[in-house]
Amino acid sequence: MDKELYLPRIAILKNKMDETPDTSTFTFILPEGGNLNHIPGQCLQLTVFGYGEAPISITSSPTQKDYFQLCVRNVGNVTSALHRLDIGDKVGIRGPWGNGFPIDRLKGKNAVFVAGGLGLAPLRSLINYIVDKRDDYGKVWILSGARTPKDHLFRSEWNRWNSIDGFEVLTTVDRADDTWNGNVGVVGSLLYKTDIQVENTMAFICGPPIMFRFVTIDLKKLGFADDVIISTLERHMKCGVGKCGHCNVGSKYVCVDGPVFTYEEMKKQPEAL
Amino acid sequence: MRVLYKKELFSFIERLKESYRVVAPVKKDAEYVFDDIEDAEDVILEYPTTILSAKEFFFPQKEVILEYDLGETIQLKSTPEVEEICLIGLHPCDIHALLRFDEAYLTFKPDPFYEARRKNSLIIGVYCTKPNEFCFCGSMGTDTIKEGYDLMLIDDGEKYGVEIGSKEGEELVNSINLFKDEEEIKKPRLKGFVREVDTDKLPEIMMKEYDNKIWNYFGERCLGCGKCVFICPTCYCYNVVEDTDIEFNSGKRERFWDGCVLTDFAAVAGGGNFRADRTSRLKQRILHKFSYYPERYGNFGCTGCGRCINVCPSDIDCTRIINMIRG
Ligand SMILES: Cc1cc2nc3c(=O)[nH]c(=O)nc-3n(C[C@H](O)[C@H](O)[C@H](O)COP(=O)(O)OP(=O)(O)OC[C@H]3O[C@@H](n4cnc5c(N)ncnc54)[C@H](O)[C@@H]3O)c2cc1C
Ligand code: SF4
Ligand code: SF4
Ligand code: SF4
Ligand code: FES
């Protein structure tokens, strides 16, 4: 595989589901069958032929054996080309790469997920992994915030998650409209709306950098230690394999050493926070 | 010790040309560059330093890393095209630079393009005899060399002493009857450096002074022109562009030299830039060489070749930054 570091594999677009006006979940299959065998939290380099590559987190769980999913916001060249593809079209993928979430460290522990907007995409991979390996993990809190009700991702899964024993889903928006009678306010405020057990719990935060900063302050207040506060770093990426230098943060490369880092690790690298 | 008389050098190069693409320093206007050798008499082995480093022969300024045809089945190709190359006349600092490049490109997920070129190369170095005013290899420990070459030449007036560094080097010396057995010739010891830095605990000291105002003083003068990273023998960063034919039937992906001092290096979609100001970009260049790279790979990412100091239109000098920060 490494001999072909820059050679993408082919994947075929099987299904496309709109989540929000600018974000959709794309389901792909591999021509040879099977899935990517990824670790939740890993990402891949997606090629839309003719347009280029973009790093995208894998949002499906590796427990889904026949397909994988990417949840992508249309922001530019490659991502808009992806949104224009038809079912049956082919894309290229390199990866999965990066470290992924610490699923072994999490064994036997509880998990609190704090997502801002698109941040729920990488977290969903781990959430659904826990759903399928329920006995290995403890309680789960899913806190998700979005700008408006229309911007919430994976709404179709909220009920399913909430109905699982030991799972609790809490959601909020920055600005409500008439379709919304739930919480209004920043996602961090949800941490105080339920009894989150701090002991034996790891926190996973994904969202814009500013949200990470505020949520971390809340988590520290609640008593979470730096090494159980876990997040992902997003950087410009060109190669995904520790060569092009674009994702360099201190002595780390986000593409190969990350994208998942503990707050403790981030504090050691200049420019990480 | 094996020796090669200088009057035999041309014959030696002619012999090499039978099996290799031969590259060596030649004079171009008032300066020196590594170039393909048509005529063995153009080779100059006594030179201060070349303008450009030798990295382009392993990591070209631009190269295709993927080609594709979008027919019924998609055809993909990502194969390096390489030729046997012999580089003659590299100074110890530039051989160290290749070893640094190897650390970055071969120790983890080897880069197939770079790897193929490195494997098909023969390195015949020459000990430098006279540093120029920009060199500080004496401080970086790169003024002499123990590995990374096939042969190493030691200038001794009318002849070169030949150090053998590899099996290929030994076979080469044995297969060409131009080499004689004579007395040991000592390696030169470089003296007279104008520039010096103290590398003791340097990675830690640089990090401790992360917020020092000195960074702004230099950062504000940096033009972001990128000359320093392009001529640097150890800078390996690149960017990628996609190029297709007008009907989207086929295309290619090319990588080309990029550098952290350029404005958009850390920019992301939606207008964000993780290094929006010049100071943060210059800091990345210097800290990557003297703190981050050593923390990751164990050696300094700088060989003290001095090229970046020579070339900078704003007189930004990493030795001066280091010395001011060390106080
Ligand atoms: C680890 C990681 C995981 C990601 N996961 C997702 C995901 O699950 N869903 C999703 O929608 N987006 C995700 N992104 C962001 C996504 O990569 C960018 O939105 C995308 O690269 C934009 O490409 P473009 O060509 O459409 O935009 P353009 O603006 O046209 O891109 C310009 C160039 O900048 C680069 N670039 C721009 N923004 C980014 C960025 N944020 N990160 C890296 N490179 C960038 C692109 O490679 C491209 O070459 C992730 C980014 C990273 C680093
Ligand atoms: S050569 Fe000098 S001015 Fe140009 S980018 Fe480098 S440090 Fe800045
Ligand atoms: S940073 Fe400057 S002195 Fe150091 S290796 Fe690069 S060009 Fe040479
Ligand atoms: S990060 Fe900057 S200094 Fe380091 S190799 Fe890349 S361009 Fe050179
Ligand atoms: S994306 Fe190229 S080094 Fe990380």
How would you portray this structure in words?
- The complex is a heterodimer of chains A (273) and B (327).
- Chain A starts with 8 loop residues before the first strand and ends in a 5-residue tail after the last helix.
- Chain A is an alpha/beta fold and 273 residues long.
- Chain A is built from seven helices and 15 strands.
- Chain A has two domains: 3-97, Translation factors (Elongation Factor Tu (Ef-tu), domain 3), CATH 2.40.30.10; 103-232, 3-Layer(aba) Sandwich (Rossmann fold).
- Chain B is of the alpha+beta class and 327 residues long.
- In chain B, strand 2 and strand 3 (31-36) form a beta hairpin.
- In chain B, helix 6 runs antiparallel to helix 9 (278-297).
- The N and C termini of chain B lie far apart (46 Å).
- The A-B interface holds A 2-8, 10, 49-53, 75-76, 79, 90, 92, 234-236, 238-239, 241-246, 248, 250-252, 256, 270-271 and B 65-66, 68, 70, 74, 76, 78, 104-105, 108-113, 207, 210, 236-242, 244, 248, 251, 253, 255, 258, 260, 265-270, 274-275, 280, 284, 287-288, 291-293, 295-296.
- FE2/S2 (inorganic) cluster is lined by residues 237-240, 242-247, 253, 255 of chain A.
Question: How much is the radius of gyration of chain B in Å?
Answer: 22 Å
Mean pLDDT of chain B: 94
SS elements, strand count of chain A: 15
Rounded to the nearest angstrom, the radius of gyration of chain A is 18 Å
Helix content of chain B: 25-40%
H/E order of the elements of chain B?
A: EHEEEEEHHEHEEHEHHHEEHHH
Number of helices of chain B: 11
Distance between the termini of chain A: 34 Å
The kinds of small molecule bound in this structure are: flavin-adenine dinucleotide, iron/sulfur cluster, FE2/S2 (inorganic) cluster
How do the SSEs of chain A run, as a string of H and E?
EEEEEHEHEHEHEEEHEEEHEH
Strand arrangement in the largest pleated sheet of chain A = 10-9-8-7-11-12-15
Summed over residues and divided by their number, the pLDDT of chain A gives a mean of 95
Low-confidence stretches of chain B: none
The shape of chain B, in one word, is globular
Strand proportion of chain A = 25-35%
